Amino acid sequence: MPPSDTDKHRKTDHDVIIRATDVTVRFGSKTILDGLSLDVRRGEILGFVGASGTGKSVLLRTILGLNPKQGGKIEVFGVDYDRASDAERLTVEQRWGVLFQQGALFSSLTVLENIQVPMREYLDISPQLMEELARLKIDLVGLAPDAAEKYPSELSGGMIKRAALARALALDPDIVFLDEPTSGLDPIGAADFDELIMTLRDTLGLTVYMVTHDLDSLFMACDRIAVLGQKKVLVEGPLQTMLENDDPWVRSYFHGKRARTVVPKDENPHYAVKDSDGK
Ligand SMILES: Nc1ncnc2c1ncn2[C@@H]1O[C@H](COP(=O)(O)OP(=O)(O)OP(=O)(O)O)[C@@H](O)[C@H]1O
Ligand SMILES: [Mg+2]
């Protein structure tokens, strides 16, 4: 069979860390994702956007195998999760870390204990080593050492995000999934978090899959962006591809009033175009 247009534009397999092909997810009679395809490439920061309630978190949970799908295939590190043996799944699960949109940390555990949760589940190492590794993660994400003994209720929103990131990094994953990591942070805190993500990508060679509504993150941190719309990936590519796209939602998102404050004028081909309200 000749390759389809989508296949021709896909990178060679060794660059692709996650490949979703023709994924369909329904809840009862409601179809959330319909024939969605997406590649995530090794070492990139991929920003995943789309209107609220379109299925960004559902896709993330589906990739992680936490949500059943009705059609399609998802390969992570070349392993088709549906056909994988228990041992293969276990290996894959140790190579990813997740910062969920809700319930980032267990409230009854300290930061140190939270970070140790995945270690206890997957690693057979001594308690001393576990504690040492957990403290290293706390340092890695830029938290003060005394954050280790604190409970989530004693932390600020920004500290919770960092602690949750530390837990996502507990097993030294190849890829981290972040669902709205900067939501609720002030712009400076959000920019600091983006910097941290970029540093980790550069120093650890991490791949980052980031669901976000944060335009600053999309413009500053992401190498590529994928837009979810009409139950599939509508557009996928670097920022320039988004800026040149004519889909109405993509246009209003990337050329709306909020975007104009962050998109440099000379990068924005539609800059002179007025909003529908003429402003
Ligand atoms: N377990 C479930 N059972 C039934 N419906 C669900 C379930 N999980 C999600 N949905 C529905 O799927 C749709 C997509 O939800 P999802 O949480 O993925 O949106 P989202 O794009 O992440 O939105 P937001 O930007 O607000 O986080 C919503 O209509 C939601 O109600
Ligand atoms: Mg969501």
From TrEMBL:
The keyword Secreted does not apply. It comes from the Bacteria. InterPro entries: AAA+_ATPase, ABC_transporter-like_ATP-bd, ABC_transporter-like_CS, P-loop_NTPase. One of its GO terms (molecular function) is ATP hydrolysis activity. PROSITE patterns: ABC_TRANSPORTER_1, ABC_TRANSPORTER_2. The keyword Iron does not apply. SUPFAM superfamilies: P-loop containing nucleoside triphosphate hydrolases (SSF52540). Pfam families: ABC_tran. Residues 18-255 form the ABC transporter domain. Keywords: ATP-binding, Nucleotide-binding, Transport. Belongs to the ABC transporter superfamily. This is Iron ABC transporter ATP-binding protein. It comes from Aureimonas ureilytica.
